[in-house]
Design a protein that fits this description.
CATH superfamily of the largest domain: lambda repressor-like DNA-binding domains
Number of strands: 2
Distance between the termini: 13 Å
Strand content: under 5%
Number of helices: 6
Largest sheet: 2 strands, antiparallel
Number of domains: 2
Order of helices and strands: EHHHHEHH
Helix content: 40-55%
Shape: elongated
CATH architecture of the largest domain: Orthogonal Bundle
CATH class of the largest domain: Mainly Alpha
CATH topology of the largest domain: 434 Repressor (Amino-terminal Domain)
Radius of gyration: 18 Å
Structural class: mainly alpha
């Protein structure tokens, strides 16, 4: 599932929904719908947000298919594989702990 981080970035920069609507050319209701995950922004809208916040587009969302998410999962996998009990016939701890990331 994709998590859109527009609201988080706006709050960090102390940009209200009304001001963000003015900067993007979107309506305030569209901004609120994006905040509440009722609307998924288009690529063009994501580019506008990235430009306004001064971040890369990938910083606007979190997804299991993003590089940063996979780096977190990879670090956890390496950590688990280094456990003494990992290579036994016991249930794989990676499967149960991966869902908690």
């Amino acid at each position: 599932m994709i998590t859109i981080k527009i609201r988080i970035l706006a709050e960090e920069r102390k940009i209200g929904a009304t001001r963000l609507a003015e900067l993007t050319g979107m309506s305030r209701s569209t901004i609120y719908n994006i905040y509440e995950n009722k609307k998924c922004p288009t690529l063009a809208e994501m580019e506008r947000f990235a430009r306004i916040f001064g971040v890369y587009m990938e910083d606007l969302y979190e997804s299991p298919y993003s590089r940063y998410y996979n780096e977190k999962v990879g670090e956890k996998a390496i950590e688990l594989q280094n456990r003494p009990d990992f290579w036994t016939n016991e249930p794989n701890p990676l499967k149960s702990e991966k869902n908690q990331l």
